[in-house]
What does this fold into?
Amino acid sequence: MENTENGKKLRVAIIGGGLVGSLSACYFGKRGHEVHLYEYRKDIRKDELARGRSINLALSTRGRRALAGVGLEDKLVSHHGLPMYARMLHMTDGSTRAVPYDPVNNQCIYSVGRRHLNQSLLDEAEDSYNVQTYFEHKLINIDFEDGKLYFRRPACIRNCYPSGPDYWALSTSYPGPEQTYWPDKAELIEAQADLIVGADGAFSTVRRLMSRRPLFNYSQQYIEHGYLELSIPPTEDNQFAMESEYLHIWPRGSFMLIALPNQDKSWTVTLFMSHQQFKSITKSDQLLEFFKTNFPDALKLIGEDRLVKDFFQYDSSSLLSVKCSPYNVGSRAVIIGDAAHAMVPFYGQGMNAGFEDCYLLDDLLHNHGLSLEDALEAFSKTRPINAHAICDLAMYNYVEMRDLVARSTFLWRKKLDTL
Ligand code: FAD
It folds into this structure.
């Protein structure tokens, strides 16, 4: 067996069964370790109550390489991913302009459904790598010295979860005060692990517990913009309502709309604007006027009734960037994915960077003859530099996407006009 620590089989506890936790389970399982994956929510594969429009994400080379490492690239990308070769910019006058991602080699990124991806990774972890999964297990404490973990199980899960889409579709949303969802009657469960992998998202409990230790650095930043998801349905003859091989963007300076294609020929449309601006729209006619002025072509595709229903159904969600270091506690614990480096979504790299963590960690643990502690130390020394850089690029792209893309196209057009 190609294990770390001179072939020692480790008992690994992965906290969080989101995208990164479930991929990490595949990596550890593939190496023959005993893997236990604990997830706060219900099993998304079985839960009929799992609400929300499952949002889609842009998968890039960084993420694809990590999927390929456990043999999943083809299954998930070729069979499910929708290629996007360029950004399609929509102006207020209805004109459009394509800006290719890679005009030289024609490379693309892929739109993938979060729910499908997460379900497939969980299936793969259980079926191919014998990973034990435990749902409705909320980590509440860790004893890092002796590797003990403490979980709470809800007594009445159905009444305990919030009802909005965000909690189900995006666990990056703040889950709210603990007592709201986890009543006193909740059961306490204890577990033991050699290695604890915190993949429990932007509001990570593992990270919070690590932060109580000396020399842990941490910073977080909310941006003034939030987001709300809308959708464009397929046409009557079940086709895409817009050209599908593009990531569509309606950049409008201080706010923007984007749309990514879904397998069922619908589009997930995300409106990004300041929380203040979201709050200022309180009536249907105000909302319709706002769309008629700023996104007239999108409004036709979304439909007035659908827009009003979706806009007022749920509150806008917040966006957060997190930086911290170190990522490990000796040989006992390590954090990956959003738990280590949550970022604003404008660079489309949060999941991709989290997937890359799984790949890099696996490499350090198994291919360099390092002890477990040295491998985790090496991960913790090298990874934050790159992760912080991606967080910064994402923050920069926050301005670029809604503003500069349009401005540079405007300048480019001007230049063309003068030629
Ligand atoms: P999460 O997906 O947050 O999963 C963490 C899991 O841990 C959850 O299932 C949660 O229930 C569980 N958990 C939390 N606390 C506990 C606990 N105490 N005990 C047990 N379990 C727990 N990234 C891209 O690469 N491309 C994109 O196009 C893209 N678009 C985005 C668009 C938006 C609007 C947003 C908000 C994000 C986007 N991202 C994108 C970022 C991406 O969603 C995240 O980076 C990714 O989900 C991180 O995965 P994760 O597994 O680390 O965390």
Observations:
- Residues 4-85+112-218+324-408 form a domain with the FAD/NAD(P)-binding domain fold (CATH 3.50.50.60).
- Residues 156-183, 415-419 have pLDDT under 50 and may be disordered.
- The pocket of flavin-adenine dinucleotide is lined by residues 15-21, 38-41, 57-58, 138-139, 170-172, 199-202, 205, 227, 270, 337-339, 345, 348-352, 354 (CB under 6 Å).
- DSSP finds 16 helices and 19 strands in the chain.
